[in-house]
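hey
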């Protein structure tokens, strides 16, 4: 089967976390690689265990929606989510979060103006130790809370 490369949305299902956003699905843009695989092209705000560049397998339902069924291969990238603390020195500014991490050249997306969480893609060859140190400092100084949505051995070992 010759599949023309195309952009599609791959949907992920998960159990919503208590006290967190109420969604139980997230759609991520991906480039189709075959009839049932695609490479993720954006950063996950809610879905854990997937990063930009990962290849996922999906099934297409009767309505034409593409549902992820597993990861075929990892890109080596990580997903980090940062939420500024409204009462902290950055206020509710996603831009200030971006500025603090700009020295590392990370690409990121903002969830919304109402909830200024920034999801960052951390490339496999990034300065993991430096990023981790800045994230820890920011948390200690009440700039933000952060979490690792998708980590790698290189991230954990840094």
């Amino acid at each position: 089967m010759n599949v023309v490369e195309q952009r599609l949305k791959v949907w992920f299902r998960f159990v919503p976390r208590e006290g967190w956003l109420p969604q139980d699905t997230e759609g991520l843009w991906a480039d189709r690689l075959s009839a049932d695989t695609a490479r993720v092209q954006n950063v996950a705000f809610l879905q854990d265990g997937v990063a930009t560049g990962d290849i996922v397998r999906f099934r297409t339902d009767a309505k034409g929606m593409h549902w992820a069924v597993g990861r075929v291969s990892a890109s080596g990238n990580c997903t980090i989510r940062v939420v500024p603390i409204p009462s902290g020195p950055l206020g509710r500014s996603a831009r200030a979060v971006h500025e603090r991490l700009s020295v590392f050249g990370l690409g990121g997306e903002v969830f919304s103006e109402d909830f200024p969480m920034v999801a960052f893609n951390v490339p496999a060859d990034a300065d993991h130790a430096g990023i981790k140190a800045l994230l820890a400092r920011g948390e200690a100084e009440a700039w933000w809370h952060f979490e690792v949505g998708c980590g790698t051995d290189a991230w954990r070992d840094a």
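The CA atoms of residues 120 and 135 lie 12 Å apart. The radius of gyration is 16 Å.
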